[in-house]
Structure formats: C-alpha cells, structure tokens
C-alpha cells in the first residue's frame, strides 16, 4: 500500500513539474485511443484500435525486480505504450530500473521526455550534464526524487553494497532511450572508425577494443 501511495505521489509531482504547454506529446483529441500495435498504418504515435478492454490499460510488469545479472548490473523494465496500449495519446509512461550492488544505468538520453525517478529502495549516485558540459550530480536514497531534464545525458550508479530500485515517470507515452556508448560504438551500419578515433582522440585499436566490449 505504501508503494502504491508513493507511485501516485510521484505521478502527481511529474504532472506538476511539467506544465501543459511543455508536454512532450501532442494533446489528445478524444477520450480514448488505445494503440493498435499491429497496424501497418504509420502515424505520429499509433492508430486507434476498434474495441478497447480493461487489459489495454493494465500492466503488472513493474511489481517484480528486473534481472541485473548483466554487464552493467542494471535492468530497466518499461511500462510505456508498447506494454500498455491504453497510454496512446495520454502523454505519460513509467519504468522500473533495478541495480545490483555496483550496478550502473549508463549515460543515456530520452529524446522525447523529461524523467523523474523515485527511489524505492537503496541509494544511488545520479547526475545529468547540461549542454554547457556542466555535471549536476546528487546522491539520493529511498523515498527521494530526482529530475532529469528532457534530452540531457544522465546516469544512475549504485555504489552501495545492497540492491537499489527506482520507479521512473516520463511525460511521453514513448520517451525513447539512446545509450551514448552503444549508439556510437554499436550502430548499424557502424560509425566509421576514423570518426570515433578522432572524436575521442584514441587509436583505431582502442576503437575496436571498445566495440568488442560493447557487442551483444
């Protein structure tokens, strides 16, 4: 019950922080537009399906921790329009991120949304970087909130000895996620090695080493 109350509080905070005129998604023009995820029609969002049900507005995927036995030691579980078709045109979504001790949600951006995280358990060192290359860092713990402005590079790191978890709220039905290292070093077709070498002031061998380390 306490967790549900915290989630409701966080969603209220998101809606209060992001004014209507700054919503990432366009305003809805009808009561409902449940996404037809199987349609071949291409629109900005998803076309509406004919008959909606309660299942279109329900998702239980954030109830359990995600698996963190991976290279980064973290796992994001999205709850956006692709999991909840009823979110189509509503301009909001959630996610749960779990972190093993030492786990990192690596530097990334959400091109279509501001993010607000609420710490369910544990503690994290977080931060975002402005377009002036200024780091805005903070250590946060259970019950606390932190905001990552839309489009800015940000990260979360669990430097503790116990697992941590957050619920993230977004002012978009599909905020998008672009992990910086993966975008640059695992793109297909690949970013030319000479571009990466010059950008990072490293040699071709170092470029290939990074690519091999990030390969799926």
TrEMBL record:
Identify the domain of life: Eukaryota
Disulfide topology: 33-48
Record's subunit section = Monomer. In the absence of manganese, it forms tetrameric and pentameric forms which show superoxide dismutase activity.
Q: Which family does it belong to?
A: Belongs to the germin family.
Species for this entry: Davidia involucrata (Dove tree)
A GO MF annotation of the entry reads:
manganese ion binding
Looking up CDD domains in the UniProt record yields: cupin_OxOx
Protein name (record)? Germin-like protein
Q: Which reaction does it catalyse?
A: 2 superoxide + 2 H(+) = H2O2 + O2
């Amino acid at each position: 019950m306490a967790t549900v109350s915290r989630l409701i509080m966080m969603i209220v905070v998101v809606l209060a922080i992001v004014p209507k005129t700054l919503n990432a998604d366009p305003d809805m023009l009808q009561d409902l537009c449940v996404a037809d995820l199987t349609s071949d029609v291409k629109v900005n969002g998803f076309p509406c399906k004919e008959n909606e049900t309660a299942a279109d507005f329900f998702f239980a995927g954030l109830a359990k921790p995600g698996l963190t036995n991976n290279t980064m030691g973290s796992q994001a579980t999205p709850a956006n329009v692709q999991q909840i078709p009823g979110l189509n045109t509503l301009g909001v979504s959630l996610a749960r991120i779990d972190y093993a001790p030492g786990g990192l949600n690596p530097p990334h951006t959400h091109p279509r949304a501001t993010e607000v995280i609420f710490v369910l358990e544990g503690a994290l060192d977080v931060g975002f970087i402005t377009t002036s290359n200024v780091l805005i860092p903070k250590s946060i713990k259970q019950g606390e909130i932190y905001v990552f402005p839309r489009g800015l590079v940000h990260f979360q790191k669990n430097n503790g000895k116990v697992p941590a978890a957050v619920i993230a709220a977004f002012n978009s039905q599909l905020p998008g996620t672009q992990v910086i290292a993966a975008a640059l070093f695992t793109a297909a077709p690949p970013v030319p090695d000479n571009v990466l070498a010059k950008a990072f002031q490293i040699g071709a061998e170092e470029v290939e080493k990074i690519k091999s380390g990030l390969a799926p």
